[in-house]
Amino acid sequence: MSSRVMRHTARSRTPLDEQSDMTHKSSHMKGTWRLIRLALRRDRIKLPLWIFIILAMAGGSMPALTEFYATAEQRLEYAATSAPSVIARAFGGPVQGPTLGSIAMVELFVFTAILIAFMSTLAIVRHTRQNEELGASELIGSAIVGRYAQLTAALTVVIGLNVVVGLLLFAILTGSSDLPVSGVFGMTAGWVLIGVFFAGVAAITAQVAETTRGANGMAGGTIGAFFLLRAVGDAFGTANPDGLSASSSWPTWLSPFGWGTLVEPFSGQRWWLLGLLAVSSLICFGVAVLILRRRDVGSGLIATRPGLATAKQWLSSPLGLAWRLQRGVLYGWLIGYIVFGLLAGFMAVEFSDLLADNEAFLEYLGSAGGNVTDIFFSSMFNIGALIAAGYTLQALLRLRSEETNGYAESLFGAATGRIRWLLSHVTVALVGTVLLLTTFGFLAGVSFMIAGDATASDVWRLTASTMVQIPALVAFGAFMILLFGLLPRYVLGVTWGVFVIYLLINQLGVLLKLPQWVINLSPFTHVPLAPSNDIQFLPLIWLLVAGFVMAAAGIIGFTRRDIYTR
Prior knowledge:
Shape: globular
Order of helices and strands: HHHHHHHHHHHHHEEHHHHHHHHHHHH
Mean pLDDT: 84
Strand order of the largest sheet: 1-2
Number of strands: 2
Largest sheet: 2 strands, antiparallel
């Protein structure tokens, strides 16, 4: 373009044109405040639940850490054991000296950051991609709403949520311990900014994927990849010459979880890494907006592939369809349990020395006999079963989504009966749960045999020990079927709430000194802690009987009620 034309173009713009541009830009954000209020109303139960979980897990654990490592000798022992340990560094990051703040960073930071990351990604996808998938975006778009209003509202809600969580954690940690205020500030600021960063990641995946499941899967995969990158970087780090601290290797610097730990708020205090998290978040927001400008509502950057015109014979049954719909979820969980199982065996060898001399830790693990290694495996299997309840919940909730989206009704219009359809999904959920647990126990035994002095018989003993947890999972799944059959409207909120209660009872019930009748509400309380304890079959039989009764009542209720739709 020649300079004459450019001057002519500049002269041709009038104040009216500039005012028009400003009005056009502001119209993109029109309706944001109303959408924020709508999102807060929709999440009036979910968001407080997330806040409660995170506060209970992170804030509730601090008094226990203070008690376990009350003396300088205990903190020295912890630092001397953790600094050279590859497994300890991989899970919690490198210890930075014999201080309570350093121990809190190792024990709390990464795990809490993962929870916050999932909270942020699920909320962003729920208020962006899910709205488009369900058609709510078109309904909202028929009103006077700007193009960027939904994304802006979702980001505003999630950023505000992270700030609230950070402020509450700051108040709890400073009030319940003698940790330095500056260190607690760096720790909580890291959590907040990691949550904001993954909100940006989810904002991108919501533009890339065409379905809610795909967007959540991509965001969850990104969280897993960044966690793995940090774990590898810390595992391949080195113990410092003082023997009480360790350094990370370069892969840690590629992960936002690594940036959070490398801040070292209780020792090195690299505050500039918090700025790096903030800038990266802004870049993610910008990328999401750029993609949003270039796509149609309802579409994604990656289009969903059409299925095959004909299915294989084994897929033509309700069971085949249930497997086809749920196999992706099971594969993802199975990968996690393979890694979890292998690490558990190696961890048992490294942590046995630490646990053998720490009476408070043994009490925390619920020791009632057996050697330290068996106590460790009992605790890990119990935690593994509780996490597997998350898979059971996710698999059985597919029943609700298939029904509310109208897919089940179309099947019932053909030759498929309700009971057959329901039992198909239940079978897949049950087989998947058993597969996860046995894989976990078997691989834990294999890695323990490789790293320690176990034999092949120990592998089968540990595998069988995980199967003791199955009746508790059956009872939990049967409770979901009962709700689905009788109260389908409440199955989502109630089952997630029950799952969280079980999680809190299992992890914090003893520390918080809850009444025994409250602890007994969880079916996982009644499962023998194998292999450290002898297996008592009577409570397992009662759990199975209760599960059978609840499942039967739920199935009967499902056959007698109307189809539930949104």
